[in-house]
Amino acid sequence: MPTAHRLRLSDGIQAWSMCAVDALGIPAMLDTDAVISSSGPVTGEPVTVTSTKGRMVWEPATAVVFVGQRSCTGPAVDTACGALNFFTSRATAGKWSTQHREFTGNAVDQTRAEALGQAVFGPLLTESDHA
User: Fold this and answer.
1) Which domain holds residue 31?
2) CA distance 50 to 34
3) pLDDT tens-digit series, residues 45-75
4) Alpha carbon of 116 to those of 25, 38, 95, 98, 126: distances in Å?
5) How many Cβ atoms from other residues are within 10 Å of residue 106's Cβ?
6) 41: phi then psi, degrees, rounded to nearest 5
C-alpha cells in the first residue's frame, strides 16, 4: 500500500514503508541497494536517501528524522509510525513537533537514524532465520 516513504530497490522493485526508520532499515535487511523517496510533512519538499553498498547519501544534506511516539499503548503503526518522518532540516522537524504535541520525541541526525533502521531491520533475515 502506498505511503509517504517509497523505496526503489536495485532490482527495480518498488515498495513502501510505514515510517522513515523502516525505510532506512530495509536495504540492510535485504542486503541490497535502494533509493528512498519521501517528503517533509511541513514543506512537502523531497527527501531522498540513496543506499549503495551500505553507505547512505542524503539529499538535502540537512535532512533529519524525527523519532517519537504517542503516549499510548498498541502496535507501532498506531503509536509511533506517524511520528517517524523525514524532514528537510531540524527547523522543519521542530515546527512539525510543535504542531503535533500528541507525539513526544526529537529530531535525530542521519547517522543515528541509519543506525536505528539497521538495528531494527538488519538482523531480521539473517542466515540463522533460514536454517
Assistant:
1) 5-123
2) 6
3) 999 999 999 999 999 999 999 987 655 555 4
4) 8, 18, 23, 23, 17
5) 13
6) -65, -15
10: CATH:
3.30.450.410
Q: Where are the alpha helices (DSSP H) in 17-126?
A: 20-30, 76-79, 90-99, 110-121
pTM for the full model?
0.85
> By the 8 A CB rule, do 82 and 75 touch?
no
Percent of the chain with pLDDT over 90: 63
Q: How confident is the model at residue 101 (pLDDT cuts 50, 70, 90)?
A: confident
Residue owning grid cell 512539525: 96
Asked whether residue 131 is domain-assigned, the answer is no
